[in-house]
Amino acid sequence: MAMNTITGLFGGASPFTALQKHMECVLSCVREMPSLIDAVIAEDQEQVNEIKVRVFKSENDADEVKNGLRGHLPKSLFMPVDRRDLLAVLTTQDSIADVAQDVAGLFIERPMGVPEPMQPLLRTLTQRCVDVCEHYGKVINELDELVEMGFRGREADQVEQMLAELNRIEDETDDMGIELTQILHRNEDDINPVSVMLWRQVIEWIGDIADNAEKSGDRLRLLIAR
């Protein structure tokens, strides 16, 4: 592998540059989720279609960065972290965009109205899951400085605090997901049985967006600890 290829992939900096670039694409996916839910609630299928196109484009961009990093990261490359740990973070991080794509795709495959009792909390849950991803993105952006400090000192303590806050916010989304599922079940007699099943899936997937961000943070914590 030519050295200029590696330098180009990492932007002349560290392997974390590609990881940060990948997360930018992932965030482009998840930031569409609140607008997607608004469009679904408004039964604006044209807007749903437009958002789906943007989500799929961002997810494809994330895949290109992911595949580029995997393909141009030789085992012999000297790095401050283990190659396997870095790729584990990348894989879990990529799953965030995959789930956002699944949510957008489902509303194309089967347009569904949102039961009115679910609408307020569905909006809140979706936005809070985006908040979790945004918070994780801030952690990723701290990595370059963390490397310079040798994963020690004030910067390391700050990242650990940010990861603890990430876990706390994600816990909120778990509670919201349970409450939203309870609302769905209380109103399931008024909803098509297939829609009840699919709404359970949507609620789970939206929660998975935050859950995968938390898992990415946990893998990052292991990477830093080593």
Structure description:
The protein has 9 helices and no strands. It is mostly helical and 226 residues long. Helix 5 packs antiparallel against helix 9 (193-225), helix 6 (119-140) runs antiparallel to helix 8 and helix 8 (153-186) packs antiparallel against helix 9. Helix content is 80%, strand content 0%. The chain has a single domain, classed as Phosphate transport system protein phou homolog 2, domain 2 (Methane Monooxygenase Hydroxylase, Chain G, domain 1). The radius of gyration is 19 Å and the shape is globular. The two termini are 27 Å apart. The model is unreliable at 1-13 (pLDDT under 50). The longest helix is centred in the C-terminal third of the chain and has 34 residues, at 153-186.
Q: Output the radius of gyration.
A: 19 Å
- Global structural class: mainly alpha
Strand content: under 5%
Main β-sheet description:
none
Number of strands: 0
Proportion of residues in helical segments: over 70%
CATH superfamily: Phosphate transport system protein phou homolog 2, domain 2
The N- and C-terminal alpha carbons lie at a distance of 27 Å
Tell me which oligomeric state these chains represent.
single chain
Contiguous runs where pLDDT drops below 50 for at least 5 residues: 1-13
CATH architect. name: Up-down Bundle
